[in-house]
Amino acid sequence: MAAAGSPVLRFDYPGTGNSVGEEGDPSRLDAWLGGIRAAAAHLRAVTGVAEVALVGLRLGALLAAAASRDVRADALVLLSPFPSGRAFLQELRAMALLAARPADAPPAVGPEGIDSAGFRLTPETAEALRGLDLARMMEAPARRVLILDRPEGRAAALAERFRALGADVEEASFPDHVRLMSSVQHAALDCSAFARAAAWLAPDLVPGVARAGPGRTMEASAPRLRVPDAVERPLRFGPDTGLFGILCEPATATAIESPAVLLLNSGATPHTGTGRMSVRLARRLAARGIASLRMDLGGLGDSASKPGRRDGLIYCRDMVEDAQAGLDALAAAGHGAAVAVGLCAGAAVALRVALADPRVAGLALVNPGRFVLGDGVTQEEAIGSAVKPATAYLPRLTEPAVWRAILRQDRKASRVARGLSERAARRLRIGAGRLRAGLTGRGYAHDDVLHAFQALCDRGVRTLMVHSVGDVTLGELEAQAGADGGQLRRMGGLRMERLAGADHSLMERAARERFADLLDDLLDRIGTGAADVLRGKGPGPPEGTGAFRVNHATGNSPA
Is the pTM of this model over 0.90? Predict the structure, then answer.
């Protein structure tokens, strides 16, 4: 829409994303509708536009229509709208009940509300949403309305209702809906519905007004968001300022010299984190006097696309440079040492930036699916190639059905067999590299994870590695370090933990809180010693890798 000439403001509702508040606060529906009113007023103030259109997707479409009269919206674009709050709640409840959950997790639907994809809708908010029904509107929500609905949607009656109230309504299909909602990667592709909405709004553009808008916006003072115990501000940094992040600092300066925390994307999730985990972690850390930067790596979230690479890819080797740019941004704000935190693919980036940059004094890795980076893969490709520990498959080799699947080259069986054989070949190659290095002092394989972690231990970097109980990523850990990560468990400076009742992305509230406690403990153990590590005064050789020697019988260095 901006490319078509419209100044655009997208925002987070109160209690979501980077905004203030929590999802469990009272009067959430009133706060969300108030957020739409505030956003429209701000857009008018900073750009000087005379007319405002509201554009909403699914629940956002329902809220946009509900707020349109108060906002004095001139146009309304509804993408796959829910016609009522009751319809939204029915779908949300069904999705929550059908979603797979860890064995020890509480029910998805209970007296505290509906838990879905890491978020909670409280009973109070659900009851307020039940009162929203667009079919009962007595006035047209806007002069012009565009409704783009999925084939199985129920917006036809809504269109007729708005026409009866005097609105000029245009209807069309939303053919990209399923593809858009199924995957981050698919959402990054061109969407015909978005193009249709931009073209539909174009006739309302007033020549000259849109071009003047950005100039007025740029003159606004640098924004600050004040929350309890913290002050946050957005940063643009890195090459051509193409990277984006939120710097969260304690509201009160502290005399204690502690490392900052660099929070990296979990998979392809934006910088707010799974279930808003990165936002909550950042503000919790600020209350302890610790600064943090939650950032989007290149091609993810609000950061710019990478030239020659599609958006939404993970496990990209050039993300190490992006993470180093995040360290530069922290250093420019006065925070020289940092602890890198990553979940899933973000854990691999955290590990590799720690190896590349001595400013990293600690690591917190959650469910790392891989330990090396490459040209990048989609989230689906990463999931499709994941193989559990061998012990998960061995008992099933006594089942005739399993052998029948192997003999007929069943797709899943073939993938598992291929994955296990690739692991065996990799272990042989890495073992040969260690033997060669033992004889010549060099020649370790680039993906020798034990070598990488020992180098960090020698440098004095403390590491926390957390896995959800039964997570598929334990297969990669077994392939790299033996059953249950045995060789890593014997390595100094590295602590390994298991989270019960946790899924891969830590969508469960209790799992996120447990990880936050573990991160607090890691930061306490690092303490002010991070400055010594940064200056090369920590344990082991300052450069970390020059004096690396591993006793492969124990997994430890002789020191």
Answer: no
